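can u do me a favor
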């Protein structure tokens, strides 16, 4: 072969082998020798099958004979695996192009051989990277997606789409706008506008096929090639429904706390006033006995005072500052005890059904308070059914698993008693449902409700470490489900007969910063036979204690006073006279004395407003002699 041809062959960027008609190698360039592990001259004169794996030689010989009969340029190894045999016995993935040539009237075949080892390694690395990407994308809870900018086609969406959207990935590949049709109508415009920006972050709502509403946080970012050209948009969509629920509940709790502080303070001040009004009316009633119309007017004052006291109790219950007397009891018993009153409240136009689950566990609650919960919910249901309907009350045994707890932001896995109240009334829109526990929020006409009923329910449920869920559909009714932690049953304590109140004897130190309350309370106690020493505030009481030579028989002190509160006075008393009993009184509870608003057994307490009878009875329990 002329040298100039050799120079061309040696300069070729691939392995080149010249083969004669008998299948023997005439020459091979250096790249071919390097590829197969030979010095090029070693290959000269050897049959081409020396470079073919043993398993393929018979087939190769047959194919070579066929080629010699019909020589034509073509590729072998394209579209299928083809291997050459290295001198060391290893296999080399190759691609070969065959070209028949005639040199000096002799037929030859030029084989151009490409070593595919690096390409196969790159392909293998790419497959491994693709597999890692697939495993990551398919294991995360979020939805990962990627679109091609030029074609505007979806290239990939992770299986998280099916979990979050409730639709198949196939439906999204078939219809690129499938996800957008699920977006809440009120959010559509915002989402479409955000889609114009390849780098975006937006939160919106979707409706799943099962009717469930989910909140989505959608983030996208541009993907550029080495030249800085935008080629793809990738993004992550995550379900933030639980986070949104927690944020809403936090805002609700903060609102309730703020308004609760205000309501508790207002209730405290009103209870001081009502103590004076009620006590004065009580004494006037005795003076006016048999004298009309004065006696009737005084009775009206008492009734009005009692109704006002009921309103302040609701304010305190809503603000979770009311004093409660919890005990282990059954919700079944509460429903049974309240059922007769509920039937009177809802009237004959409504059908009331109750269902008690004997397996419902006992709970730690104040039964009187929970009768109020039932009444408030029943009244709310009655007002939603002006033309009649059905009210159902049921108790159930509820065991919340870890998976189920994800649907209730504040409900931990565990054992609960569940109270379910369902009506067939008008139902609520999502907007109304989101505000039903807001204090003073009402959809009733002016003068028909205070807007406190459901706020009180919410406050009581929270005070008992419970959780309330609400389901409602316009035109289909509403269901309240209240979950209360199960409590271990306790043996019932033997009933103790109430002592007969007799005239008392003993010295009482009365500490009250409200002058009018101090005056009427002292008057009650003196009429009952007690000697009463009064102090205008905590500091004055503590100074008086320093001057006492002997202990008093009872300390009665308001809980909340400027400067030194009731606990400080009691501590000062017990520092000198450890056995002196203490009776706390207040228009609301002080957390330092009544732990988190729950009555402690070692604390004697009487709530304002109180009557002369209730005060004297309480004092008689504490003063022996």
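np, heres the sequence
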């Amino acid at each position: 072969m002329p040298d100039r041809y050799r120079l061309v062959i040696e300069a070729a960027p691939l392995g080149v082998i010249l083969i004669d008609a008998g299948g023997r190698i005439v020459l091979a360039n250096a790249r071919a020798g390097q590829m197969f592990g030979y010095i090029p001259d070693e290959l000269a004169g050897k049959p081409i099958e020396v470079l073919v794996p043993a398993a393929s030689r018979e087939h190769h010989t047959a194919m070579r004979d066929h080629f010699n009969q019909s020589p034509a340029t073509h590729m072998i190894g394209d579209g299928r695996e083809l291997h050459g045999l290295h001198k060391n016995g290893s296999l080399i993935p190759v691609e070969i192009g065959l070209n028949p040539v005639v040199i000096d009237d002799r037929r030859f075949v030029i084989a151009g051989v490409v070593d595919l080892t690096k390409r196969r390694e790159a392909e293998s690395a790419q497959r491994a990277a693709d597999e890692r990407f697939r495993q990551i994308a398919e294991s995360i809870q979020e939805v990962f997606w990627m679109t091609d900018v030029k074609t505007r086609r979806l290239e990939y969406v992770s299986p998280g789409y099916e979990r979050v959207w409730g639709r198949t990935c196939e439906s999204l590949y078939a219809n690129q706008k499938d996800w957008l049709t699920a977006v809440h109508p009120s959010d559509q415009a915002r989402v479409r506008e955000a889609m114009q920006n390849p780098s975006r972050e937006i939160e919106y709502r979707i409706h799943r096929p099962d009717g469930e509403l989910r909140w989505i946080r959608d983030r996208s970012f541009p993907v550029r090639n080495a030249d800085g050209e935008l080629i793809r948009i990738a993004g992550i969509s995550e379900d933030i429904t639980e986070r949104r629920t927690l944020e809403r509940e936090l805002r609700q709790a903060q609102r309730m706390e703020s308004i609760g502080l205000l309501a508790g303070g207002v209730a405290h001040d009103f209870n001081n006033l009502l103590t004076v009004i009620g006590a004065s009316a009580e004494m006037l009633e005795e003076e006016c006995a048999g004298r009309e119309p004065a006696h009737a007017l005084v009775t009206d004052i008492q009734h009005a005072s009692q109704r006002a006291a009921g309103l302040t109790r609701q304010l305190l219950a809503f603000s979770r500052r009311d004093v409660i007397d919890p005990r282990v009891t059954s919700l079944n018993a509460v429903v049974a005890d309240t059922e007769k009153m509920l039937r009177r409240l809802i009237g004959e136009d409504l059908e009331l059904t109750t269902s008690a689950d004997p397996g419902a566990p006992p709970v730690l609650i104040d039964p009187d308070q929970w009768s109020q919960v039932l009444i408030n919910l029943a009244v709310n249901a009655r007002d939603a059914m002006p033309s009649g309907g059905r009210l159902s009350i049921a108790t159930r045994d509820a065991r919340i698993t870890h998976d189920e707890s994800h649907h209730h932001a504040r409900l931990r896995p565990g054992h609960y008693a569940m109270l379910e109240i369902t009506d067939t009334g008008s139902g609520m829109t999502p907007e109304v449902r989101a505000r039903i526990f807001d204090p003073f929020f009402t959809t009733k006409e002016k003068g028909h409700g205070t807007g406190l009923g459901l706020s009180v329910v919410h406050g009581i449920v929270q005070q008992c470490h419970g959780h309330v869920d609400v389901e409602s559909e316009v035109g289909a009714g509403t269901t309240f489900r209240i979950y209360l932690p199960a409590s271990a049953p306790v043996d019932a304590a033997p009933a103790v007969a109430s002592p007969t109140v007799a005239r008392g004897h003993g010295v009482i130190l009365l500490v009250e910063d409200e002058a009018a309350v101090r005056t009427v309370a002292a008057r009650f106690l003196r009429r009952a036979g007690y000697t009463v020493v009064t102090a205008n505030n905590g500091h004055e009481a503590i100074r008086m204690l320093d001057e006492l030579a002997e202990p008093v028989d009872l300390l009665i002190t308001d809980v909340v006073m400027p400067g030194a509160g009731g606990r400080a006075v009691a501590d000062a008393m017990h520092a000198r006279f450890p056995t002196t009993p203490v009776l706390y009184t207040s228009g609301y509870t002080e957390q330092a004395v009544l732990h988190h608003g729950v009555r402690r057994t070692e604390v004697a307490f009487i709530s304002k407003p109180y009557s002369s009878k209730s005060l004297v009875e309480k004092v008689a329990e504490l003063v022996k002699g």
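The radius of gyration is 44 Å. hope that helps!!
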